[in-house]
Amino acid sequence: MRDEGAAGGAGESAKSFRLHNAVIPARPLAPALYLVATPIGNLSDITLRALETLAGADVLACEDTRVTRVLLDRYGIVNRPYAYHEHNAEEAGPRLIAALEAGKSVALVSDAGTPLVSDPGYRLALLAIAAGHRVVPIPGASAPLAALVGSGLPNDAFFFAGFLPSKDKARRDRLAELASVPATLLFFESPHRIAATVEAAADVLGEARAACVCRELTKTFEEFRRGTLGELAAHYGDGAAVKGEIVFVVGPPGEAAAPEAEDVDRLLTALARDMSTGKAATEAARQTGLPRKDLYQRLLDLKDADAG
User: Fold this and answer.
1) How would you write 213-224 as a 3-class SS string?
2) Between residues 261 and 274, the one the model is more confident about
3) Suppose 275 and one of 45, 241, 251, 280 were both cysteines; which one would form an S-S bond, judging by CB atoms 3.0 to 4.6 Å apart?
């Protein structure tokens, strides 16, 4: 990262952005790490504060310079972006901290949405905080929030869980851990795994639970497919090709009464006759809404008691 790049790759007069035919100068930024939210699809979903920060920052770090360049060109910003991603974080991170130490302003963006949400920006923010530098969020677009408000599911409490594991057993175990969380659940998912994920969610969380697959948010082919987990599993199980970025939203569990301890023991014992301990605990968690970890331990206790 050369000094001339740290100054934005151009003279101070170039620190501006364009809105339609108007060129707007960017005011100087105080030294800090600025976490700048960028559009998740529609390039018009950018705030004025974000544009001024991208134009005025001494150093602009991004996940993919090609993606960020499209946004910069759209708004006439000549600042030169530098790559900061999971593959070069150990090398690029200290350079960005050094820029902060030198009294420069550093802006960080991801390819889309808010930095630090499922990307390595979290590590950079920790380094900046540990070194005593200001960390300034520049809020804006967020795929999980867009999906939440568009899904029609309860939004008074929600839990963002990122990506589920790719392996089926680990995926189901994670869903079982989240089964009783009293909130709407949000996951990122890839198009080639959405069918398997919805099927697992229907099995673990129950087919009647409300959900929504939110695809290509803010883009031309934006889609909100709403229904029960059973209905969605049937739709995606047909093998139809799915494209685009996805946020999978699952409504909170129902207000079912907590089962009696004796009933839980009977259920665990019955399931364990035909299943391994882990599978029995997972199935019991799906049926009762109780934490899988607690049910697993209870089943071990029951087996120890029978052995004794």
Assistant:
1) EEECCCCCCCEE
2) 274
3) 280
